[in-house]
């Protein structure tokens, strides 16, 4: 707390100690409330409490993504993401329960042998307030673009 209170002192303006530069960069966003340093609505965690907070966050073995989401909503300290990743990577339970979805096999299109055998369609826009239908022939790479009505819902397109 003393560090935050001294942010505007002459010492800060002369030379900022290396380990405090990250706090100095946020000096205009830090506040003190009920003896806690806040960055916005998040509590700035002192160095000596980081491990305790990390252990509490890790209790459910949610994995790095969920832990970061929870931590970022409530706390802040320099390198919070790296420390969460370090904890998750060093946990054997998280490693054994880690459930990466299988990688989707990339779909390969069959090679076309003549024009208009296969076309690709997509909408583009809005561009300057208008929508466009883009049609590309996969064989020749010929492209056709048609200006569409702004309403591209299927019911509207069927009426056209």
From TrEMBL:
<dbReference type="InterPro" id="IPR012337">
    <property type="entry name" value="RNaseH-like_sf"/>
</dbReference>
<protein>
    <recommendedName>
        <fullName>RNA-directed DNA polymerase</fullName>
        <ecNumber>2.7.7.49</ecNumber>
    </recommendedName>
</protein>
<dbReference type="GO" id="GO:0003964">
    <property type="term" value="F:RNA-directed DNA polymerase activity"/>
</dbReference>
<feature type="domain" description="Integrase zinc-binding">
    <location>
        <begin position="45"/>
        <end position="95"/>
    </location>
</feature>
<dbReference type="InterPro" id="IPR036397">
    <property type="entry name" value="RNaseH_sf"/>
</dbReference>
<dbReference type="Pfam" id="PF17921">
    <property type="entry name" value="Integrase_H2C2"/>
</dbReference>
<dbReference type="InterPro" id="IPR041588">
    <property type="entry name" value="Integrase_H2C2"/>
</dbReference>
<dbReference type="GO" id="GO:0003676">
    <property type="term" value="F:nucleic acid binding"/>
</dbReference>
<dbReference type="InterPro" id="IPR050951">
    <property type="entry name" value="Retrovirus_Pol_polyprotein"/>
</dbReference>
